[in-house]
């Protein structure tokens, strides 16, 4: 795995893209994702720290891992304004700098579309979660409509290039289940901007429980 990441164009664009998305509904999605989260939280690929303001008083600590230096600098600023303690760390979802079974919540928002090795990242999420913990996810998905999926596949190479490695074609919900998580709550929706669908519209917000630790 590469030890550094640099996506200067995406890092410059993402705060604006995110502000636009938040003005059109993703602010509410982030609230929904994090409502009722408690205890020690690990956020993977925290970007600009857009989730930080949604952590409520039940959260005692957030460890936010972000590999991209420019985005991480923005996350550090957002951490200062958060109402709960947030530690922003460099690192990768595939190698979390967090002890085994020490987190109550792992948060993945708009990130499993981009992470290079999703099974490794989900295995890490399972490793760091307590047995009673939860994976909270908010992701865009490949469409289950064949025509729409064909369009996503067609656009994907350009989308990846402009979107810092983001993929339109991932079946992320299935990847979570394949990693052994039990999906307990899930809401599918099309994220529409001004009533219109875009290539990343098919979306999901959910909560999954980690796989049970195997006894030797
Ligand atoms: C679309 S942004 C989403 C940021 C943030 N989670 C949000 O909800 O706004 C995707 C993020 O994933 C990060 N990322 C990419 N590969 C990663 C990896 N292997 N581990 C952790 N983060 C990664 C990128 O640097 C970027 O910040």
What is the total number of structural domains?
Answer: 1
Task: Briefly note the CATH topology name.
Answer: Rossmann fold
Radius of gyration: 16 Å
Small molecules bound: S-adenosylmethionine
Tally of strands: 7
Low-confidence stretches: none
Instruction: Name the average pLDDT.
Output: 95
The helix fraction, in percent, is 25-40%
Report on this structure.
With 216 residues, this protein is α/β, with parallel strands linked by helices. It has one domain (8-209): Rossmann fold (3-Layer(aba) Sandwich), CATH 3.40.50. The chain is 35% helix and 25% strand. It is built from five helices and seven strands. The chain has a seven-stranded mixed β-sheet, with helices on both faces. The two termini are 30 Å apart. The mean pLDDT is 95.
Outline of this structure?
This is SAM-dependent methyltransferase. InterPro entries: Methyltransf_11, SAM-dependent_MTases_sf, Thiol_S-MT. With 216 residues, the chain is α/β, with parallel strands linked by helices.
Chart the SSEs and their pairings.
Elements: H1 8-34, E1 39-44, E2 59-65, H2 69-81, E3 86-89, E4 103-109, H3 118-128, E5 129-140, H4 146-162, H5 172-178, E6 182-190, E7 202-209
Parallel strand pairs: 1-2, 1-4, 2-3, 4-5
Antiparallel strand pairs: 5-7, 6-7
This protein binds S-adenosylmethionine (SAM).
S-adenosylmethionine binds at residues 18, 44-47, 50-51, 65-68, 71, 92-94, 109-111, 114-116, 164, 166.
Organism: Streptomyces gilvosporeus
Keywords: Methyltransferase, Transferase
Protein name: SAM-dependent methyltransferase
